[in-house]
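In response to reviewer comment 3 from the previous cycle, which asked for concrete evidence that the modeling workflow produces usable outputs, we include below a single protein chain processed end to end. The sequence was submitted unchanged, and the resulting structure tokens are shown without manual editing.
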Amino acid sequence: MSDTIIAKRYATALFQLGQEKLKLDQIETELRTLREIFLSNEELVKFLKHPRLSASQKKQLLSDTLKGFSKETLNTLMLLIDRHREEIIPEMADHFILKMNDVKGIADATVYSVNPLSEVEKQRISETFAPKVGKQTLNLTNIVEPSILGGIRLRVGNRIFDGSVSGKLNRIERQLVSTNNRR
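The workflow returned the following structure tokens.
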């Protein structure tokens, strides 16, 4: 079974537990924090996968480090350690966050622009494009990319909305080439 399927199952189980205990928002916050810790510290996964560390040592490290976390989140992490699945913790957190976003009508999106966008510009982009992808709002991450020349390129999941100058130039070029090939 692939790690993705396993991560989804753990995320779903934790999500259902969070619903029962009315702790979804708290667990989401904890998993966002945990995901950042794992993504910013690649050595942590290597450390947790080290064969000389016993499961009890790994559990102790996590419970000491994550003292303010809910019992539900900690128990899930301990279960992952018992089953030698430490490497799927960030992916499990991602799946949980996606489930929360679906419930809240939120989608994560990336906006590429020539200059950093202001909060007002991000808000306008969110208001404009959220309905187009069937969501109420978008969590925008702005990436400055001078190669787009102007305008913006927005990526929401698998969908790309390209209103950049470089994108328009590429479309014009393809159109001209296909017109010339027909002759």
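The first helix runs from residue 3 to 21. We consider this sufficient to address the reviewer's concern, and the full set will be provided in the supplementary archive.
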